[in-house]
Request: fold
Amino acid sequence: MSLKNQAAAVGIAELKPWKEPPPDATPLSLMARLAAEAIADAGLSKRDIDGFLVGMPTADPGFIYPASAAEVLGINPRMLNVVDIGGASPAGMIWRAAAAIQAGMCSAVLCIVADLNRMGDQKVPVISVQREFEAPYGNIGANCGYAMIAHRHMYEYGTTARQMAKVAVDQRKNALKNPLAAFGDKALTIDDVLNSRMIVDPLHLFEIVSPCSGGSAVIIASPEVAKRTKNTPVWLLGAGEYSNHSSITYAPSLTESPIKPAADTAFKMAGVERTDVDLVCPYDCYTITVLVTLEDAGFCKKGQGGPFAAEHDLSYAGDFPCNTHGGQLSFGQPGLGGGMSHVVEGIRQLMGRGEGRQVKDAALAYVNGNGGIMSEQVSLIFERRS
Amino acid sequence: MSDYIKPLPKPSPTSRPYWEAARRHELQLQHCGGCGGYIYYPRPRCPHCMSDNLKWERVSGRGKLYSYTIVRRASTRSFADAPYVLAIVELDEGPRLTTNLIAAQEQLKIGMPVTVHFDDVTPEHTLVKFKPA
Reply:
């Protein structure tokens, strides 16, 4: 049993993130627009959608959420669920959709996320153990955990601030070619990044995602449905998921993440090598996240993410195209739409719809979704068949 | 009444002995009779071997700085008095914990020895912080 070639991405929709929430929007109004656009993009009709995976919006959360959201959209699913694994939720939806299709439970799954950023002051975490053992010491939100990962990585491997900053710089090059990027209007230099305000040592402002509003949707379909869609189907070749902690303090290691088993599972299922991959879309809430992902997913040796980023051109035209949409760092993080942006970009490139940033002859993409503080990991491998 | 505005721990039935010990300025951890490991944070069963044979033991309060950050801009108003040092300390007994390090910024060095420092933040609440040994 394997998910290899059991389902394909056939339609996508993505909103340009708003830096300020649009006044008349709600998460459900954004989802309604995204659902219509994704279904039209695939060349399907609403009646074809018989699976529904949705992210819980922070701006309008609810209990028993999927049926109420599906009702608003007028969708009658044979399988419905909230996927709640943080930033890995969108990537997690993709293989769950494929698994439901493989099991014969449904044939076209709408995977959808939308949110408005009205967070302002970060709330004390709702998880009781984090309220009790993290919040009193000021470990609230994600910044601190990633800063401590970065410090430890610098300590263990000699990673430098300039190497980390290079990730933000190269991804910005990509964003300049992405009309949907919220931060895609001005090039960045390494010095720009290092001169931006220090927020949590050693991470500067331009190394940290900006919360935005927006959303995106992907339709995953059976081989039968894929035959009658209008896009080039992008097949799921491999998937893997793993988690071994929630708070980074209790992780087995700060610098060796659960990405390794997730990626190993995905590559084994896909039956391809790292060197076969044409582009990567690693979740990038912070610059350090990308370095750790490239290491643990096996694209470079452990600890060598910094030199790897420094020595390779991560732009769409470079020798190692990485987050060709700009990553969340430049695209913006519209809630879970941040994590979906990596999935959408991988699919978009393989469909040959990368426009000014198209990776030449892209046929194989690696996508990683990351939740919490390197906690939940989902690796996906997509292929366009020639 | 205290004017302390930061979040305070609300002990659970599982963790109450930990916080009561901290009030007495003692660092106590659960010690597992099944596998011999020390446990932090307090758990209903040993997360290593699932044994329920857990006993509270006083531990050394010594450890090493595993990693840290200087929070210059906090993401919540209750920590508007930033900068502060958020740290992960690895205790000599094994477990790591999230804490604050009471130290000058230029002193901070990953791997440095640290020792427990009990901070009575309100008359009812003591937080477990660390300082250079």
